[in-house]
Amino acid sequence: MTEEGGVETTVVVIREYDPKTDRESVEQVESSCEVGPNGELSLYTDLLGDPICRVRNSPLYLMLVAEIVNNNNTNHETKQIVGMIRGCIKTVTCGTKFSRNKSADPPKPLPVYTKLAYILGLRVSPFHRRMGIGLKLVNRIEQWFGDNGAEYSYIATDDANEPSVSLFTGKCGYTKFRNPSVLVHPVFAHRLNVSNRVTIIKLTPSDSESIYRNRFSTTEFFPRDIDSVLNNQLNLGTFLAVPRGYIWDGSGKFLSDPPENWAIMSVWNCKDVFKLEVKGASKLRKGLAKTSRILDRVFPFLRLPSLPKIFSPFGFHMLYGFGGSGPMYTKYAKDLFGFAHNLAKEYKCGVVATEVSSEDPLKLAIPHWKVLSFTDLWCMKRLGEDYSDGSVGDWRKSQPGLSIFVDPREI
Question: How many other β-carbons are positioned within 10 Å of the β-carbon of residue 364?
Fold first, then answer.
């Protein structure tokens, strides 16, 4: 965009983020923008001095900034960063095909992979909106996606965030794809109970990878580089819930002869990446929250529900990779959630969160507070006509499965 009036020229430049010169300006724009729709309460992020933190752990990533450059008749030039966007690329499961066996064995389901790009952290200063800057940022990051072989691009936004939904579906060619649920639970001052009929085992990254690849590689959005996720320093561990008395003898034995009921879950430490803060709360609401914490701390045996300090910067843990089998699966998953809550309490986190498919039975089984939880909207765009595997066709037209695999590197 170029505007000329007299001898003054204004140009919007889209360029790559420079951490040496841009960090302070980017943080100012970030702090001026809300995450989610406008309302009484707004959610703000503190990126802890690293604007790339939310994509840094992805296999391939880029951050762009939008900069307004003004030139006047004295050849004086001023520059101002007014927006930014992050993007990353990975390879994920987009569908399933079946092996062609010559033996009498039934066909084995195999994952179909695609190269997927993800857009997150699109921000435009409130004083520079409705100028087409957001669209320019999206167009440029999509060009980078295409140059690096991405076949699809998707974004995640709050289903109620009308400006974001309008931009991507109305101007950028995205279609509504999935509606997963973000389930958020406060970390109480008291610990949650975990059934004494269940044993929870912390797995090695190698055993975790074996189980995930064997049982979940055909799950939609499963990352092909799951080993990189599990070996990342932010991954606090993968935990397996099995019947009490079950003897663990490695993933090989487990996969060949699993117990009737079991559940698995991994924990990602978002607290060391960025923090959140709820602003706009009334003094009354803050006072009630503080009172609930005091009562819970003084009388933990009463197990009173309490709201943590979400009105000041707080960290959280992301629970991902939920799965399992058996008639008691959801109860085992609930025990894993209790274990994760207690772990987050030790790490002094404010909340624990997970994201599940709208079709997943875990949506009803996992404890969460409706006032903190919300429906997410994933929108997808097809970037090209050539595909690495034709077994799926156009992924956008596929029906949702019972579950999705949420990659914690891009929260």
Answer: 10
Q: Spell out the alpha helix ranges (H) of 151-267.
A: 162-166, 205-216, 226-230, 251-256
Other C-beta atoms lying within 10 Å of the C-beta of residue 320:
22
pLDDT per residue of the chain (411 residues) written in tens, 0 to 9: 444 445 667 888 999 999 999 999 998 898 887 654 444 567 788 888 899 999 999 999 999 999 988 887 666 778 889 999 999 999 999 998 887 766 667 778 889 999 999 999 899 988 888 888 999 999 999 999 999 999 999 999 887 788 888 899 999 999 999 999 999 999 999 999 999 999 999 999 999 999 999 999 999 999 999 999 999 999 999 999 999 999 999 999 999 999 999 999 999 999 999 999 888 778 888 888 888 888 888 888 888 888 888 888 999 999 999 999 999 999 999 999 999 999 999 999 999 999 999 889 999 999 999 988 888 999 999 997 655 555 567 899 988 888 999 999 988
Count CA atoms within 13 Å of residue 363 on its CB side. 16
Q: Which class is 182-376+402-410 in CATH?
A: alpha beta
For the chain, domain boundaries: 2-179, 182-376+402-410
70 in Cβ contact with 103 (< 8 Å) = no
Q: How many CB atoms are closer than 10 A to CB 130? A: 8
Q: What is the CATH number of domain 2-179?
A: 3.40.630.30
Is this prediction's pTM over 0.85? yes
- Do domains 2-179 and 182-376+402-410 share one topology? The answer is yes
Query: Taking a C-beta distance cutoff of 8 angstroms, is the pair 402, 360 a contact?
Result: yes
Containing 336, the helix (H) or strand (E) segment is helix 329-346
Q: What angle do CA 375, 377, 123 make, to 5 degrees?
A: 110
Residue 53: DSSP 8-state = T
The sign one gets for the Cα dihedral 115, 377, 180, 281 is positive
Q: Write out the E strands in 344-385.
A: 351-356, 374-382
Distance CA 407, CA 396 (A): 19
Residue 292's SS3 state is: helix
**CB proximity list for 207: less than 8 A, separation 6 or greater:** 238, 250, 251, 254
Strand partners, 89: 60, 117
Task: Please state, in angstroms and as integers, the Cα–Cα distance from residue 162 to each residue in 1, 103, 126, 176, 355, following that order.
Answer: 25, 54, 15, 13, 21
